[in-house]
From TrEMBL:
Residues 523-532 have a biased composition (Basic and acidic residues). This is WD40 repeat-like protein. Belongs to the WD repeat WDR48 family. Residues 977-986, 1135-1157 have a biased composition (Low complexity). WD repeats lie at residues 194-226, 238-273, 287-328, 329-370. Residues 468-532, 780-838, 878-986, 1130-1167 are annotated as: Disordered. Transmembrane segments: none annotated. CDD domains: WD40. The keyword Chaperone does not apply. InterPro entries: WD40/YVTN_repeat-like_dom_sf, WD40_PAC1, WD40_repeat_CS, WD40_repeat_dom_sf, WD40_rpt, WDR48, WDR48/Bun107. Keywords: Repeat, WD repeat.
Amino acid sequence: MAQARKRISYIIPSAADDVPKLQLPPHGSTKLGVTGPLLTLANASPRNNQVEAAASTKQPRHRLGVASLALDSSTQLIGRNAPEGILYSGGRDGLVMSWDLGITMNRVKPRQAGSNKKGRWENLTGWGDDVIDEETDDDERPISDGDVLGEVTTNVKKRRRAATLLGDIPFERQWETDISQFQPGTPSLFRLGAQVHTDWVNDILLCNYNQTVASASSDGTIKIWSPHATIPVDPTTIGTHSDYVRCLASCREQNWIASGSFDRTIKLWDLNTTTKKPLVTLNPPDATAPKSSVYALAADPFGQVIASGSPERVIRLWDPRTGRRTGKLVGHTDNIRAILISEDSKYLLTGSADASIKLWSLASQRCLHTFTHHTESVWSLSSSHPSLEVFYSGDRSGLVCRVDVEDCPDLSEGECLVLCNEAADAQKASAEGINKIAVMDDNLLWTASGTSTIRRWNIPQRRATRPSHYVLDADGDQVPRSMGRQNPFNEVPSESSTRPPTSHGHSKRLSMAPSVQSITSEQWREREPDARRNGLPYDCHIRLISPNDPFTPFVSLSRDAEVATLYSAASVMSVPRQLGRAPSQTGVSSPIQSSRTEETIMMANTARAEYEERELAVDALPVCSEPDFIIEGDPGLVRSIILNDRVHTLTVDTSGEVAVWDIVRGICLGRYLSEDVAAASRTGSIRYGNGEKEKSPREALEAVRERIEGEAVVSAWCMADTKAGVLTIHLMEKCFDAEVYADDVGFANDRHFNEESKLNLGKWALRNLFIGFIREQARRNPPPAKDGHIGPSLSRTSSREDALNLQSGKSGRSVSRSPEYQRRPVRHPPPNSTVISSPNLIPAVAPIVSSSVRSSPLLTPMISLHTQKGILAHTLPPIPQSPMSDVTPTPGHTRARSGTVDGSVTLSGMMTPTTGREDYFTQRARPPGPASSPAPDDFSGWKGPDGKGEPPTPSTPSGLMGRLRNFGRTKRPVSDTPLALTTPTTETPTIPEVFVIEVAKTPLQELLSGNLSPPSSMEGPPPLFPQNTTILISEEGSPSYTTIYRGLVSHTHHDTDALETAMPMWLVEYLLLNQIPPPAAPIKVSFVLVPWNKDPDAEPLPELLNTTQSKLTASRNLRIRKILNHVQDKLDRMSSGSRAPSVRSSVDGNSPHTPHSPNSPPRPRSEDAYEILCNDTLLPYGMSLAAVRQYVWKSSAELVMCYRRRKTLKTLT
């Protein structure tokens, strides 16, 4: 089986804030003969002190859009009396980060039993008569079908569901915010961050009592991470898909998670095991259907049902125990993007790209109601209510709404609010919609969008718990009800918008600052006393239509789920609104249009009248005009392009700035401001707040590239990408194909290089990346001494004792080590390169939970075994030689050290003293004897297998082969007499017979057993890469490469063992033997060289070629200077009458110069005597043939160049 291809990658560190500012050269700047980019420093401008202060306190941030959020309100920190909240975020940059929220919390009061009424949603939506009673008596219990596993787990589920309904609160929800102690603007501080994935993080969730973070990524992996571990640990891969992993769902009570992927499968993973095999794989009915990709996933807390959504426009229901489909919900007209399931598994809430939100009954498998207040695709849903009676929704336009029907007698009595608008800031680019919503106790809300920032909104409490003794005065400030206006309506007394007033005298939730779609103070003064509903202005409300209303327009027409879906906001463009209206009300032609039209203005122009006509979120004003706090993000790289010199790369970030990078040295050379890039743009596709248009990232890079790129022709040797928001360079086996002249890459005046010296870009980069690995291998494998003796080396055939001798500075094999000493790692593991923690990190307290074990319903229930006391009391101890405990190690043929990804060292293959009874293969202890009488098992007299005489066979077989040979023979019982009391014999000591097992060496062992000849500094000159450059070694897989090693340049000498395992053989051969794969055949360029005879005043030069030589052929990297040497040699020999050298030898520079007599003047340099032209353009001496053909000749015809004598010769020195 062929091994998978491996790829070497390195991530260049992000540019510092003091990177030089560059200015674009003017149009038409000459580039003839220039190989590198034209970089011009901009005028120095004084830096802002505030910017410098911000840079000094900069913390890690997201670089690209945040795709998912998860909220932990149960983990308590050391020294704190209660949890303070931790927010987790996963972004398109592959990062998973956590933030300390600093919010005061109290314990939740237990719910009263029976608070959840049966059939609440059915009664609200007009289906109360069709409620199915799921509770059956014992005599009505269905007959068993033989599925014992199903019966066991179903009964467990019912018991746990009953316990939950009786008041038991899950551990994760036992704390709530103390809103009276909350201070607006409380900052969220960085806690931890981990580079978990190499591609977008599409979803994250918390499990295992909020102690484990699970993440799904476009790299095809599902990983778990323990952020509260005492020692930071790397994330662990628990499973993979063959395509992007889009969504996750967890079963709280059974401790498993489900993952949905674009490979059209759903896989379940048990968090209690370390295997990477799924428990169950759920397959769609048609695995090849193009629209079977899983976009949304939900599972109930007790593991009874899984719901999935896809572009098929249906919701599929699955039984995770059997892996079978149990139902299909039809009604949506577009892709299902979000799914929620109630605590009791009775209701399902789905959000779709058809702009509708549907509520389903899982008992009857029908749609109960369709919410149509959104006009854009619904991307996210969130709810902490057990029955989903309070839920939040976010759409593609950036609007976030809340529907609250808790304790309402009718759906029309409920409340639908527009809470905030992410896209309200016109000065910023499009937020690309609401990717995720996280809500804490219906008081604080966090939104994640297409930008790298996370916003926190201070939202009003839900309707049932909103305080009623505060109202808003005319200026919008909160005052006690006795100071406010009286409610003019004979309805429930008006409640305040939120909670008691906070500091600074106002609430940011109802800010009076004018902004787009926000409530201004002038509007408040003009409002009538009836401009509030439930304490909030009517302008923030959206009318909920009751199905029991006789004038309800659409839902009353049909009870069918599919017909109900037809009236979603995105699919009723042609349905007349007046269909269900009263005759006195004049409707509009489309519900997508604003309800404030000329027809509506004809009605009473009051806030309540407008509310009665408002059914769309776009017509309402958001309650929160600005966020309470923003977790800022950094601009991330979104596109890159490698310039033609293959040394420099251009990147553009989310802010529009273009940076120039040296990818061989791993540094950023400078950046062009977004204003300069915008000025260089002619047309655009992105509109910014200043009204100007700027090019798309690809077009912006092309605009800068056109202005600064030089004229070089170099073979491609690497690839670049910016998927994680940083510049990543990838190298494969063909990375050794690019060669450049040393003076073109900054070594023009270096004494170690001349004008003809070349550097291989692949060799240069790889040597400097792994310089620590090379030096460590050279230390472990020193060259032979002058007398021919090879010193101790840590080859793959050496023992662990040699390694210890080497570490202690001793040689030979006479040093004895105890097993305890031998188990110590030789080196301490390097710092973790994946996890970054805050210097002010406060550790977390381990959760205190019940001792009941959460078992997976997918596994066979364990039946307790009743055994007598003492039976099964002693378990077999693990064999200490190997963690695998199934292979007997053979000294001398095992690895001395086994490297891991994070550089830690594990010991294997070491013999340890046994305890208790000996087994068959255990070596017996030798008794101490006189120095003159060596023990029979002493190896001091053994000369090895190459000795002259064969040692006699001992009476008692020893050694592995000896034991194997006597295996099965009758053995004499071992005497109970201690060996130490046996009288030593005076006979000649016998030496045991030893048989050497020949084990085939791996290619790496063969390589390390010989002499090493690593590349010299001439192959990879300094400067070296920055020490914080990240190195990745990946293996080809599906859908992308799988990372098998991750480390830093500064830690490669610590990770030597791990690198040996992860490196491809072609890389090891280059680093240790300076051998590279056979290069491709060099590319030749043919050309014709003729004299320039267009100047009548100049002396004509003779033809260099005869009739048999019509053209010349040379390497495409040949410089014009070498052609001048050829011209000079030919002309000099023709003038002296000697035989002219061959064309090949002359062009290649192997022909000696024509000898001169001692009295003749010194011969001038060829570039001082002659010059070469092409297309009437004088060619620079350092230009290559390939560059001449591509940038000067610009034709597919035969390249023609002319030579002539220079008119003025330089003064000879």
